[in-house]
TrEMBL record:
Organism: Actinomadura keratinilytica
GO molecular function (one): transaminase activity
Pfam families found in the cross-reference section: DegT_DnrJ_EryC1
Listed cofactors: pyridoxal 5'-phosphate
Taxonomic superkingdom: Bacteria
Region span, Disordered: 359-379
Protein name as it appears in the record: DegT/DnrJ/EryC1/StrS family aminotransferase
Transmembrane intervals: none
Length: 426
């Protein structure tokens, strides 16, 4: 009996893997060389770097080209990108914005900070992504915009969402923070809605440094409003002291853009490696009864910020907490990534329970609709049925083989236990 088929490590057996998984190492010598060269130029010329300079404009042009055209703006974070995109749409207040149940908190927080009410759309059954039917149930006369997020790098089915939005005359914001380079029907996500936002913080597919974000649109007029709203309300081309609206400073900068340009060039290779690894993972789990990688639609090409492993915990006879502990004991790093911001204390306190007269959501004329926990049963069910593996381009066949071996080992052990338990009760 080999370690891969022996007693579970959590029960005292030998783990499948004892060596740590490889770190991702987002930045390398290419980024360092580019930054060194950039500093050398600025020191030699005495022209200190700033925001909106040559490097930033070059990065933004390359980002837009990667997405087939349009206009891109580098900002300070993914959360800032969503804040800017929504602010530039100039939604009427009071009003509501439909947001996804599963997303990062930064994918919802800009809505109440703009004085709008987030209305939570459940995910499609078995998915971390919203679907058009779930969004439609959230629409009202107060709806001003729809935000969709491509969670884990898996594309939302955009055509039905766009058709719904067109029928109601609503703008669509695509949150692509976890989905750089993912494709839906042969086009990159972020090119379907009115405006798209990206996080470029360190752990994303491509990065502009510790924190960063991008706003992208094909609408020139909207782009000008994006530029204005991201830069303290300064009209494009106007004198620096001429602010035409109240707004905040979310500017990117040339140094971040230098890093981003190198990273953007690496993105196709990152995506190819991740897709290949997930293909191998899916094949390695083929034939298991209660464990597997969910299939994606044929018209989608995910970017895989993480990969979902769907579990039938009822058949395995184990809780998610127990399963995670056992998989980690086998040496496999894993977690559960299905954040539901509307279930967090800040949302309860600052959004749902806002008292009449409290700023900004408790205004007497604000739309008020109940939003109990039963509003997102599909999201909660999906969160309770999936383990996430943070597959990245530094993994090799060895890491995939070990992950498959550990997942197979757990399934066989737990199914044997449930079969034995059922036999004992007969």
């Amino acid at each position: 009996m080999t370690p891969r088929t022996a007693r579970l490590a959590v029960d005292g057996g030998e783990p499948v893997r004892t060596r740590p998984f490889p770190p991702r190492r987002v930045f390398g010598p290419e980024e360092r060389a580019a930054v060194d060269a950039f500093f050398a130029r600025t020191i030699e010329t005495g022209d200190d770097f700033r925001y909106g300079g040559d490097e930033q404009r070059a990065y933004e042009a390359e980002f837009a080209r990667y997405h087939g055209g349009g206009h891109a703006l580098l900002v300070s974070s993914g959360t800032a990108a969503l804040y800017v995109a929504l602010g530039a749409l100039e939604p009427r207040r009071p009003g509501e914005v439909v947001v996804p149940a599963v997303t990062d908190a930064g994918g919802v927080m800009p809505v109440p900070l703009l004085g709008l009410v987030p209305v939570v759309a459940d995910t499609a059954p078995g998915s971390f992504n919203v679907g058009a039917p779930q969004i439609e149930r959230c629409l009202s006369e107060w709806t001003r915009a729809i935000v969709v997020a491509h969670i884990g790098g898996e594309p939302v089915a955009m055509e039905p969402v766009l058709a719904l939005a067109r029928r109601h005359g609503l703008p669509v914001v695509e949150d692509c923070s976890q989905a750089h380079g993912a494709e839906y029907r042969g086009r990159p996500v972020g090119t379907f809605g009115d405006v798209a936002v990206y996080s470029t913080m360190t752990n994303k597919h491509h990065s502009t440094g510790g924190q960063g974000g991008v706003v992208h649109t094909r609408d020139p007029a909207l782009y000008e409003r994006i530029r204005r709203f991201s830069d303290r309300g300064k009209a494009a081309g106007a004198d620096a002291v001429r602010n035409v609206q109240a707004a905040l400073n979310f500017n990117g900068n040339d140094l971040a853009a230098v890093i981003g340009r190198v990273q953007l060039a690496k993105l196709p290779g990152v995506l190819a490696a991740r897709r290949d690894l997930v293909t191998r993972l899916r094949a390695g789990l083929h034939g298991l009864e209660a464990t597997g990688v969910p299939r994606v639609a044929a018209d989608c090409s995910p970017a895989y910020w993480f990969v979902r492993i769907r579990l039938d915990l009822a058949r395995l006879g184990v809780s998610m907490t127990e399963y995670l502990r056992a998989l980690r004991a086998e040496g496999i790093p894993c977690g559960v990534w299905a954040d539901i911001p509307a279930a967090e204390p800040w949302y309860e306190r600052q959004v749902r329970a806002a008292e009449p007269g409290a700023w900004p959501l408790g205004a007497a004329d604000r739309p008020r609709r109940p939003a109990g926990r039963a509003s997102w049963p599909n999201a909660e069910a999906a969160a309770g049925r999936h383990v996430t593996l943070f597959v990245h381009e530094r993994w090799t066949s060895r890491e995939i083989d070990d992950a498959c071996a550990a997942l197979t080992k757990l399934e066989r052990a737990y199914l044997a236990r449930t079969a034995s338990s059922k036999g004992a009760r007969r």
